[in-house]
Amino acid sequence: MKAIQLNGFGDVSNFSLSHLDPPVIKNDEVLIQIKAAAFNPIDYQMRLGLRESRLMRSPILGRELSGVVLQVGTDVIGVKPGDEVMALAGSRGSNGSYAELMALNYRMIGSKPRHINFEEAAAIPSSGLTAWHSFTRMQAEVSDSIFINGAAGGVGRFLIKLLKANGVSNIVATAGSGESIAALQSLGLGSGQIINYNQPGLKDLLIAANHGKRFDYAVDLVGGTIAETTADVLRMNGNYVDVTFLGTVVTREILFDKGANILNIAAYAFAIENNLTWYGDTLNHLAQLIEAHKIDAPAVNVIGNLTVETAQEAHRLMEANRIYGKKLVMSVTA
């Protein structure tokens, strides 16, 4: 099989195209012909050798995919060759998704929504599972106010869809470009609900957008110093949803002083507990919501095929935060 390998931590020049033997499935695994793979910030964080690189089991990066089942192990239940599927493989696959094939435990795969293409389906697993984990942990009421920092990214857009589908509409979000603002407007947020984070006095603008009150929930999808503002606009004893683990020391001090409830969100936590059925069950639920048109499939930017140049470009765009409200995807096999 063809695959793009990372030959060492560092810049994008460390990618190369390789021809490898196909993976051999175990009794509880399926062999997937990957049709499309999506790119995630954790990919470049791994490439740089940051904390996330400890999760690597293969020099082939990529954690989510869509494709067709080619082969099933003897212990596999409910999946057969020819099934169109999607998955967040995490570090459980035989290799990453920058490849033509992957062996993966059948409990981690979900059915691809029937009316969307493989590229759109590949954009669902990581963002969708993380957003669903956030949504179910939050248990926000219709009357609650929600601030989402970095909402134009994949998780933020998915979370907004889930909240609005369940009647939670008092949402304020940040964006930093015209394209990102347009992406949030397409989800039904009004101009008063979208604040450009490049403006001075961001904290005051956010509180003003919530009618002069601090928020019941603050969701951090960015980290860094802007996480301090995210913590600052949270009400006393409010709920802080941390999806990044990238907040600063000052962020943690603010949250401690507010007596905040901190919800740490990590979709890979279920894999650590070996609760693999959560992934397949949740993906199937998300697929049902999409097929029922209760939420939309993600907007995607298909930037190329399975080439080194495609991977390099995707990593450059992610590091420069030039995603602009669309998930970066590559087509893998025709």
UniProtKB/TrEMBL annotation:
Signal peptide from the UniProt entry: none
Domain of life: Bacteria
Residue span, Enoyl reductase (ER) domain: 10-329
Protein's name in the database: NADPH:quinone reductase
Matching CDD domains: MDR_like_2
InterPro entries (alphabetical): ADH-like_N, ER, GroES-like_sf, Lipid_raft_assoc_Zn_ADH, NAD(P)-bd_dom_sf
Gene3D superfamilies, sorted: Medium-chain alcohol dehydrogenases, catalytic domain, NAD(P)-binding Rossmann-like Domain
